[in-house]
Input
Amino acid sequence: MVELTTGEKLLIQRMLAEQCITENRAQELWSQLKSKGRIDSDSLEASLINCNGQLQLISLEIMGVVFPSPADENDDTNTPSATKYLALVDKHRPALGGGGDGDNEEIASATKLAFVKSTLGGPSAMNHRRAILQHLVDNTTATKADLINLKNEIKDSPNYTLDMAETCVDSMLRDSWIILVAGARRKSMQSQVAMGPRTYMELSDLLTEQFDMEQSQLPQQLYYR
Output
């Protein structure tokens, strides 16, 4: 197994810090480290393969996704485009417990736990996040206001306020679970929002098993092995 250079270790640290980055951003980071003599590999892809050789020992993997850019309804050119994103994905799957409570199949993987813990708000916020994913699976895009107002569909959550719902949506945007459509402004309630690349990389099984998304609807995933 190839020993990681100092630069490759720093690349992993930056990916952990930024959570989900474009391939162009990864290339920029790699080039900076290469120019300082901290990386020996001849390409970003070679370094990612080296990194994964070590990361697999702790059930982590750098993955990529070819993510079609959601169309901007104000753009008349209709020019198709796609962006490659990279993320450090936790591949660990904990063993099922033996508690006998009938909920074993619902035990979350580590990646699902990352999604659950990405914002505060308790069970109401988790149900809100699930409602957001289901809405985007069904409708592809939605306004930020519509996603916030999904709070009204959550049962038994009288203490889940509008401010908490907005915080939930903003945190999902910040963590790349959902993204703004090209040309949208983060602060505008009428900005169009779509499923984010991180969701497809880390929660693809959740999308297909619980939200009825077809495998053919998932974007192409990239592996560096």
Summary: Residues 95-107 have pLDDT under 50 and may be disordered. DSSP finds nine helices and seven strands in the chain. The longest helix spans residues 122-139.
